[in-house]
Amino acid sequence: MNPERLRKAPNISIVGSSSPLGKELRELIEGPEFPVGRLTLLETEEYAGLLQEFAGEIGITQIMSPESFEDTDIAFFACSPEIIKAYAATGAAFPELTIDLTQTGRAGTLFLGGVSDASQLKPQGYYVNPHPATIALGRVLGRVRNGSPIESVSVTVMEPASERGSTGIDELQEQTVGLLNFQPVEHKTFAGQLAFNVLADTRHSAPVESLVRHQLAALLGQSVPSVGIAAVQIPVFHSHAFSMFLQLKNDVSAEQLRSMLQVGGDGVIIHSEDGLTPSPVTVVGSDAVQVARIAADPVRPGAFFLWLIADNLRIAASNALQIAENLVFAPAQPR
What we know:
Blueprint: H1 3-6, E1 12-15, H2 20-29, E2 39-43, E3 51-54, E4 57-60, E5 62-63, E6 74-77, H3 81-89, E7 97-100, E8 109-110, E9 125-128, H4 132-147, E10 150-159, H5 166-180, H6 202-220, E11 228-233, E12 240-248, H7 254-262, E13 268-270, E14 289-296, E15 303-310, H8 312-328
Parallel strand pairs: 1-2, 1-6, 2-5, 6-7, 7-9, 8-9, 10-11, 13-14
Antiparallel strand pairs: 3-4, 10-12, 12-15, 14-15
Helix pairs in contact: 2-8, 4-6, 4-7, 4-8
């Protein structure tokens, strides 16, 4: 890693550049706000040689190896968990500045923009990008706890097919087309038929629930009680949906809760219930958590039901890029 180049126009490598999350990250990095020296697109041998466009130029994906990171300032791992686990199992060193978006539970510095202290980011380190559900819930609960003590929280997390990567998207599409053509449904990625259905897949949901719960505890500390989480798989391609029950210790109104959520910038957007509320389709491309409904419980003071939506790919890629931006635009370290 070149410290001087890091602060001007870092060389960046993206592992898993052809994955849904990798494509989203590449699109954000292509924006004019983030300076890039050289972008290297890395894949396993199976996907090496693919042609991908960046900033109007065509690049060829290369095979990931320790040597491929030799001139890299920032490495993003947006690949499948199996790929990063296989790389770690070889004993090869990770780049000096690594941002991990794979949700494997590897040890590192967990960072959530707007919640975590930016002072914990150093030019060298292994940084873990939170699960997209953690990002959405962490932003909302972080703002609420600043306005009122929280007594309890329970959330149903509705996961899209894209959380399983390209294979999840492809399988949902194939199942949908097959059913519409009266063909038998096959499944490998999901526990059964997901198209036109909802799955409580314990094999997948239990690890997600545990990961999000532990990440929220690490980010929010004792200021928020342990969050009750139940994850289900829903038949949409992109975007998380959340049904949240929130019990505050103070007797506040829905308008007061709305005001709490509006403090802190554009990371959380509150919608009026008069018009068309946001949905998994309408929030695609937004890096904000969309609050579609705040309903006070009529019999319990300080209790609310909230309906939240967030583009899982954009919100994860955006937070990962924010980690990098904090390092690139940070003042130079004293010598």
